[in-house]
Amino acid sequence: MSSEIKGKVIVITGASSGLGEAAARLLSAKGARIVLGARRAERIESLAKELIAQGGEAIAVTTDVVSREEMDALVNAAVTKFGRIDVLINNAGLMPNSPLEMLKVEDWDRMIDVNLRGVLYGIASVLPHMKAQKSGHIINVSSVSGHKVSPGTAVYAATKHGVRIISEGLRQEVKPYNIRTTIVSPGAVATELPDSITEADIAASVKEIYKTAIPAESFARVVAFAIEQPEEVDINEILFRPTAQEY
Ligand code: NDP
To answer: Ligand 1 test: best mutation among 12, 90, 91, most atoms within 8 Å of CB?
Structure first.
């Protein structure tokens, strides 16, 4: 695997908006072959068309990361179309925060399913290919909430702490296969993420924090930095925030 982004086959989950979409745009501009996964088919299909119109190579595969079969189909589509998979960006996630006492158990389940189970399914889908290739790069998206917790964020923070633990365990295990692992933990980035919050107080405090949110291209540049390192350099973790963010 070369250190160049050009030509790499990069699968991105949650590519229909926010961080995933921004990463797709920048990595495509740098010459990567992009495989877009998300549930909103029309969004990823029009993004794929746009990337192709700009001279890139891209396909869109409608994917719910909570389905093991659909996650496998996303990765298999990459291998069928482009012959290999170099990078998985395990990015799909949601953040419907609320205090535990409100018992929004369905939201807890969705966060565990998408933020944790979805990340594990992504790993399960790419590992056999990357082991066989003896190369690959798995980038898992955590959060500042993967480093700390505050009232209303317990379940989200638990899933994002979990992502970091899974990534570090994975890092140690995949040494024999020449696979790199990167945890990216963003602070407030302007995306649709806060839209999933239904609890008014939490929505108001998140809105306050997101007043200083930075553009999604910040994430795209971080991911590109990790990917374009020489093959023997493994960027294991990056935490970044808006300069103005205290939390
Ligand atoms: P968005 O809400 O803009 O994007 C979330 C993406 O996840 C969408 O593309 C959505 O696509 C996808 N998604 C959600 N559920 C599923 C599912 N079941 N299967 C497949 N895709 C799914 O938010 P962000 O871009 O901000 O979020 C991306 C990641 O970044 C998340 O993991 C989030 O936790 C993390 N993060 C974001 C921060 C921020 O400030 N923005 C800060 C720290 C971390 P669709 O609905 O089409 O399926």
So the answer is: 91
